[in-house]
Amino acid sequence: MSLCLPSVRGRVAGASLSPLVSSLFFVNFTPCFLRRMALLSSTSLSKSLPSSSVSSSCPSVSSPAEYVDWQRHLGADDPTETYRFSKWPIERGIVFFWSSLSIAFTNLKPVVPGHVLIIPKRVVPNFRDLAEEEVKDLFASACLVASLVVSKHKADSFSITLQDGRDSGQTVSHVHLHVLPRFQGDLERRPGVDREEQKPRTREDMAVEAAALREWMLQLSQKRESCI
Predict the structure, then answer these.
(1) What crossing angle do the helices spanning 132-152 and 203-225 adopt, rounded to 10°?
(2) Domain ranges of the chain
(3) Beta bridge partners of 90
(4) In sequence order, which ranges of the chain are alpha helices (DSSP H)?
(5) Cβ contacts of residue 133 below 8 Å, gap of 6+?
(6) N or C: which end of the chain has fewer CB within 10 A?
(7) Chain centroid to CA 104
(8) Is 171 annotated in some ligand binding site?
(9) What pLDDT shows up at residue 130?
């Protein structure tokens, strides 16, 4: 599974892209990569993954998501923090993943089950205007969230999509990544991910899904702890 994005040249928010950020524009999402990503981004993601020794000492670990200490990303650090998606407030109940600079939350108009969104906490309309640390944190978070939804929905593929600018299909003026677990034939009749005609869900439905993802994160963390 891989993510390909256009190469980025020049500067982001006045700073050159680091080797880590540059490498994120073509990445292979293997278990080894997921472990390395969390370690490399330890300043923003709190050293989410243990060393590779876990895999050798714990034969019951069967997916990349089981390497992650998900409890570090459940938002217990600051329960008073508030968020917005462009001009719309985000209820804490629909958020399931927190890092220092990003959050992930359930989607009002999912095109497939498990379709979630990741945004920088700071409201920034366009990707090119993100600070370097925000870029690193956003994509490191995407790696972790992708492993989570793939594990939860028992998929073996996923898509990560960034639509930047009106002509790309972006409909909300806040940088956001779409993460979708994928199955054969799931989008044959529904191209695109920012679709105005998609029927919205209730906030209650979104909160139920977020709670289920948080519970899944706890279960995965407990399984990991039993192996350490």
Answers:
(1) 90
(2) 2-225
(3) 83
(4) 19-23, 31-40, 42-45, 53-57, 132-152, 203-225
(5) 44, 101
(6) C
(7) 6
(8) yes
(9) 97
Q: Would you say the pTM of this structure is higher than 0.85?
A: no
pLDDT of residue 189: 59
Is 184 annotated as contributing to ligand binding? no
Helices 31-40 and 132-152 pack at an angle, to 10 degrees, of 140
Is 172 known as a binding-site position?
yes
**Does 170 belong to an annotated binding site?**
yes
CA distance 28 to 42: 19
Parallel, antiparallel, or unpaired for β 88-90 and 95-98? unpaired
Distance CA 71, CA 55 (A): 19
- Which residues are known to be catalytic? 176
Question: Taking a C-beta distance cutoff of 8 angstroms, is the pair 228, 50 a contact?
Answer: yes
The string of pLDDT tens digits covering residues 88-111 is 999 999 999 999 999 999 999 998
If DSSP codes are grouped into helix, strand and coil, which group holds residue 63?
coil
**Phi and psi at residue 165, in whole multiples of 5°?**
105, 155
Q: Is 226 exposed, middle or buried (0-12, 13-18, 19+ CB in 10 A)?
A: exposed
* Positions of the chain with pLDDT lower than 50, given as ranges: 1-61
Nearest to 35 by CA among 224, 219, 218: 224
Burial class (CB in 10 A: 0-12, 13-18, 19+), 208: middle
Residue 223: per-residue pLDDT: 82
Classify domain 2-225 by CATH number. 3.30.428.10
| Residue 124 marked in a binding site | no
